[in-house]
Write a structure and sequence with these properties.
About 55% of the residues lie in helices and about 15% in strands. With about 240 residues, the protein is of the alpha/beta class.
Length: about 240
């Protein structure tokens, strides 16, 4: 899959100006570098990723003035009766994010991918938690994921994650750029509610999923290490 195919389609339709398109293409190697870095630091292949030519806005309900920007999402899909996990990377992140920010967000979504795989292997995805507001969702999100230092053997990458995700991702400079150069210029935008970003798979769908046994062994090893670290935090 060409990770820029949707961006190219948006440009042909006139949805993305040439200067913005050129900027995203010019800076896309930073994203590729981040994916390669994560694979090397974890020893696990990164899932399929693509650039979404929109900014994704999430709010508790359609009438709310409170909203958050989702710079990337981990999405489970069924294609040709096979299960896949796809990382959706927003074009504004590629265009305006600092290298450390881009790599941290890619790593964070990778942790979502691992947690999603862990839950699927345990048939534990029938009723995921839905929180009432963006503030609560930050902490629910962090509590479910593997500790980064369990997964990544890259000190600089870990520093990027720790700095940018102390308790949920916030980058005010990046958000200001997105508001000024993307949202205020009426470039493509996707509005979703918080519960729309929650993974929901039926028991029938879960039963059809077949996962690589070697990958599951790796997940189990990470889970054991993660449990030990979280136990130490409690005492």
């Amino acid at each position: 899959m060409d990770p820029l195919v949707r961006l190219k389609e948006a440009r042909l339709k006139g949805l993305i100006p040439d200067d913005v398109y050129d900027l995203i293409v010019k800076r896309f190697p930073i994203t590729v570098e981040g994916i390669n870095r994560i694979e090397k630091a974890s020893g696990i292949r990164y899932p399929t990723a693509y650039v979404e030519p929109s900014i994704v806005i999430s709010s508790p309900n359609p009438n709310s003035y409170e909203f958050g920007i989702l710079f990337a999402r981990t999405i489970p899909v069924f294609f040709d009766e096979k299960f896949h996990v796809v990382i959706q990377i927003s074009a504004p992140l590629v265009a305006y994010g600092l290298k450390g920010t881009i790599h941290a967000i890619l790593a964070h979504e990778f942790l979502h991918f691992l947690e999603l795989t862990r839950k699927i292997s345990k048939m534990d995805l029938l009723s995921d938690e839905i929180t009432g507001n963006l503030f609560e969702s930050v902490y629910a999100d962090e509590g479910r994921l593997f500790e980064p230092k369990v997964v990544f053997k890259d000190r600089t990458l870990l520093d990027h994650i720790t700095k940018r995700f102390p308790a949920g991702f916030r980058d005010y400079k990046l958000e200001d750029k997105v508001m000024k150069f993307w949202i205020e210029k009426n470039l493509p935008k996707i509005n979703i509610s918080l519960d729309a970003n929650t993974v929901k798979l039926s028991a029938e769908s879960l039963a059809k999923i077949k996962l690589d046994p070697l990958f599951l062994d790796k997940i189990a090893q990470l889970e054991q290490k993660n449990a030990k670290i979280k136990t130490k935090k409690l005492y």
